[in-house]
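Hi all, long-time lurker, first post. I run a small reading group and we've been trying to get comfortable going from sequence to structure in the token notation. Rather than ask abstract questions, I figured I'd post a concrete chain and ask someone more experienced to write out its structure so we can walk through it together at our next meeting. Sequence below, copied exactly:
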Amino acid sequence: SRAQLQVVRIEAEEDTVQQGQNNNQVKMVVRNNGQAQAVISSSDIYFKKGATDVNSQYTVSANPANPATIGGGATEDFIFIVYVASGAELSTITIDGEVAGRDNNSNIVTSDNGADQTDSWLVIEAGNLQITSIDASRSTVTQNQTKEWHMDIHVKNNGSSAFRFDNAQIKIYIGSEVTGEYTISNPTQFWNNGLFSNTLAAGSQDKVRFFVSQTGNKTGEATLQGEIWVTDVVSGLQLNESSDGNSGGVTKIGRAHV
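-- Answer (accepted) --
Happy to help. Here is the structure in token form:
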């Protein structure tokens, strides 16, 4: 019998994706129900919100190793990598697929433009980390002071999924940078009222605390600039935010007098 292509099912690796997220794998399983070999001419996946086409919100790249032929009675996997646009609709999106080819013997076209079993994913808001302020526990400290004091970077999670703490740093400027004159213990977790936590829940606020055990020698008004790195627990994407506005965040500079 002649080649007859069938899109059996769609399998998305993720059931939840974020706006702006890349490297989302989707598999399309195709079977040739005929005995003759099928030569593939095209294959693709597409996206719908209900009955509405939302393909423009996704960029799909086919794996170059996807099958060029499917033998009689055989089933093959077609792999696609999907980028979700930063403005993709926040909704449950159906993922479907289509394939076309020809019978290798007769050249008769065979195609299927819908999977027997579709899949879907939920699109959620992109991660949004904000530094709201930076402050110091003392408004005035003495040069070369060894009495401990601390600096806090206050952060807010404006996104819809939790963040995991990765790293944070703070820089001190009195005219030029003088951070190297200070002995500072960097945080390894969010402060969480002194109980410490690796994560910052969606919609919540916290801070990271830097303890200073040795103050620098240079005197004058100090400007504090901070940066923090987190990983979105849903998408696995790393975000960073800096207080000097280089990451597109609100600029909030804390000050201490040295």
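A couple of things your group might point at:
The first strand starts at residue 5 and ends at 12.
Confidence is low (pLDDT under 50) at residues 245-254.
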